[in-house]
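Dissemination and training. As part of the outreach component of the grant, students in the summer workshop were shown how a complex can be specified as a set of sequence lines and then modelled as a single object. The example used during the hands-on session is reproduced here so that future cohorts can follow it. Participants entered these lines:
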Amino acid sequence: MRDIIVFSGSSNPDLAERVCRNLGLPPGKVELRKFANGETSVQYGDSVRDKDVFIIQTGAGHVNDLFMELLIMISACKMASAKRITVICPLFFYSRQVDSKGSKRGAPNGAQHKGTQIADSVPSSPKLVSRFSHDPTPKEILNQKARGSSAAPALQTLRTNDAAIATTGYRSWIAQSGTLVANLITSAGANHIITMDLHDAQFQGFFDIPVDNLLSKPLFQHYITNYVPDYKNCVIVSPDAGGAKRAAAIADVLSMPFALIHKERRQMADQTPSQDLMAHSNPSSSSVNSVSFATPGLSMQRSPSTASMSQSAVEQYVATTMLVGEVQDKVCVLIDDLVDTSSTITRAASLLKDQGAKYVYALITHGIFSGDATSKLKNSAIDKIITTNSVDQTTHYTQIGADTMVILDVSRIFSEAIRRINNGESVSMLYDHGW
Amino acid sequence: MSLQKPPNSIKILTGNSHVKFAQQIAEYLNMTIADIHVIEFSNRESAVLVKESIRDEDVYIIQTGCGGPEKLNDYLMELLFLVHACKSASARRITAVVPNFPYARQDRKDKSRVAISAKLVANLLVTAGCHHVITMDLHASQIQGFFNIPVDNLYAEPEVLKYINLKLSTTDLVIVSPDAGGAKRVASLADKLDTPFALIHKERAKANEVSRMVLVGDVTGKVCVLVDDMADTCGTLCKASDLLLEKGAKSVVAMVTHGIFSGQAIPRINQGSLEKIVCTNSMPLTAMAEVCPKLEIIDICPTLAEAIRRLHNGESVSYLFTNAV
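and obtained this result:
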């Protein structure tokens, strides 16, 4: 190896150690500490002058702290004349951005609500939903047109709409921090990023430096083919539409059947049409199972009557999960890139069990498991949780228990990427190779 | 709906570091704080919730570097997120008001292979989209040069002068700098008060630890005022106070701009020989004042509020360098 040195941040020293062992390198000496006032300080014990430096830091735990530590580590390397600084974030910082639904679901706001946590943070993807809650739906417009024989009522509706906009004023939103995080890392002095299973592949485009997005897919394929009995008759399930592509890719390679859980969030006012749609979109009515839940804090059943009762509250949504595909008497393999509060995956698992699934595996690349996720997972319908050590899993492992949890080692993928980048070889082989 | 917005509108935002301070500043300006918050999720990521429009506004974000090992980096990231949120919400100008600038002490490469974190923070603020920074008593005023945007480094000195003139008799006063780095600050203060000044030279073995101290100057029979830009673990201040009393000082009062008071600072002050420690409210200190009767707080909000007002109206800020508000 030429002029290479690997340093570890404080987030996942175990992974860094494994990576170094695979590469046959001693871990780089770095002193990470904090001053009494809380400022992070970094001092390298090994020379980095003209070296190819790799810094391993994963984005789970005390995220902001770890992120600042990473930035200071990068900056210190740059100031110490490193030749190239490559940042390895197995789980990328702020890769999953919370969209504006958070506010719709009663997100805590500011200092007075400090400490409150959002129970169900939703994996987000850019959505083309209207920013304005009072935009008339096509149906409403149609209704208005139908009533439009006399001009007066139509005008009245318009006026009420205006009034509603005036009173609610600004529709609150949550700022997206993806570009910022990317820019901060670049401005600190990083030359290259290696990450794994980015939640949004678009995130790569936020950077002005090369980003290698490694995949856990080969690892998962290897697990399924070797450890899932009679895997050809199992079903790969994606717990949400966002991960469908990722899950379907594995199903394709292993020629396994595929199912999808679709989650719908509709305003209560749209209740009746949504039910119509649901009935419509499912090929057989037997496979329609709707687990419904309302906004936290509102115990609400999915029924048109309650919907009409609660029309006054604009910020009320009903979420419905439904399964597309057949899982009766099958072994299901749920595949997701990231599990945080674990509500999506546990709900998906119980839906699968309700639909007659025999056994449920959950393959998760990044297990953040924040809040009460571990206890939720332990008591869930998931029979086996398989995750990777991209995030330090030692506490989760003891909390969930060895009989339900399996941890796969991703260090070899990263070591091989490091070796190849250091040698100037192609990395693309890592996307398919079975580990 | 009118298309003509007031051309000169201003918004004040705050992170979670020192909300009361921001509220006081807003009060002095006869404003309310904009409904834009930073929230934290269970995975400890932060996000900015924007509840009102800041399009084309002159935005001031108040966030101080405080919180100790648990929160300091969180608050810094909050500030960056707020700045970026304002940028993406098309604010006209974004000014970060950071009374206590975080990482200000890591401003040089005193050892090999360490980061100049103050420079990093400056870069981060600019990268996030900051157009202007207001800060107070930077540990080293050279930090201003780390930014390629304008930085207004305000001084607490006028307020300190006001306090000394009001509360302490100037006849038998001597102003003391607890380290050589603060000599200039102390000399200027002593000039204005027309009092003598003394200096303590210390040899530092490690950060946050003090080894040996030497007093330069005469303090016999005098009331000593120790002046510094920040009080962190208070090891320096307490040792300096002991030394001054040993050299014949009548009593010792400490005046600092930023009361960080980390680690064992409060018990140290309580048990130490300092008669009083006076600091500005640039850090959240109400809880500390309850357990530390020696702690006295002076309100610095008017200075910052006036700076914001002047900056917003395009007036000169230099008046504030020499005059208390």
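The first strand of chain A starts at residue 4 and ends at 8. Students were then asked to discuss how this feature might be tested experimentally.
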